[in-house]
Design goal:
Length: 208
């Protein structure tokens, strides 16, 4: 066999890294939701943007109504629903019915009936003005073709004084920097309040 055609482990690693990098670059330039067939990405542990950090910065009160846009398969949803109690509600909203179905199954398996689902586009939320006390958007904003439109819609459906928490993690092809997020959120009328976690994996809270 010609040795020129035998790839070393190092060369194979570089080739694989190149392919992954090319896919990530294409995905970043072409915003779209993570397909349900690749849900292992959203089911994996979320370093830095943990459930505990989300609970701390969101600071939920029992009985509140919360909108979670892009829940994936429900990594955060059950924890939110448990904190809200039976009088509270988590509305999960996604463009993919498969993700919504998975999230609802996950909630029901834990005996949570205060989770409901709606399918649609985040650029046109099907809710009245001033509907929610809080909204959550985790590693989703960069997947939306027009993030500014989505933030305007979130600001519209939040009650006065309501809060929006956005989570971002470096390594996600659609990662949004804190500076870019602040600029877009402020243009939508959302005031930055605080950040928890480092810039490579953070939650940022805004106030309507």
């Amino acid at each position: 066999m010609n040795r020129d055609f035998v790839a070393s482990p190092g060369r194979l690693f570089l080739m694989a890294a190149g392919v992954v990098g090319a896919v990530a670059l294409w995905w970043r330039r072409n915003p779209s939701a993570c397909p349900y067939s690749q849900r292992f990405w959203v089911e994996a542990p979320h370093p830095l943007i943990t459930r505990a950090r989300l609970a701390e910065i969101l600071d939920l009160d029992p009985g509140e109504r919360v909108l979670e846009v892009g829940p994936g398969t429900g990594y955060y949803t059950p924890g939110l629903a448990e904190r809200l109690g039976a009088d509270g509600t988590v509305e999960v909203f996604d463009i993919q019915q498969e993700m919504l179905d998975h999230t609802i199954r996950r909630a029901r398996e834990r005996g949570l009936w205060n989770v409901s689902a709606t399918r649609g586009d985040a650029r046109q939320l099907p809710y009245d003005d001033d509907t929610f006390d809080a909204a959550v958007l985790i590693t989703v904003l960069g997947e939306i073709p027009d993030p500014g439109a989505a933030l305007l819609e979130l600001a519209r459906v939040l009650r006065p004084g309501g809060r929006l928490v956005v989570g971002e993690l470096l390594g996600d092809p659609h990662y949004v920097t804190l500076r870019s997020l602040q600029r877009r959120a402020e243009a939508a009328g959302l005031a930055f309040e605080q950040r928890t976690g480092p810039k490579v994996g953070y939650f940022a809270r805004f106030r309507a």
